[in-house]
Request: fold
Amino acid sequence: MDAPASAPTYSTPEQVAAMLQISIRSLYRVVANDPTMPVLKLNGGALRFPRERLERWLRDREQGRAQPKRLAIVKAAN
Reply:
């Protein structure tokens, strides 16, 4: 049975590592150290990566792209 057209497409760690041209070990290190990386952790420890969100995450980290501005929290002087 085919998935509906609107269903997200997921990639395996092997597919993502091949796409990024890094080892599986390096991919797992990125997942462990960067909580912003879009990943779905399934029971039993399996990982799946939502392809559309992963591609957006990668585009946002390309060199030369403007980084989003962060708001600074300033404490009022007493």
Notes: The radius of gyration is 17 Å.
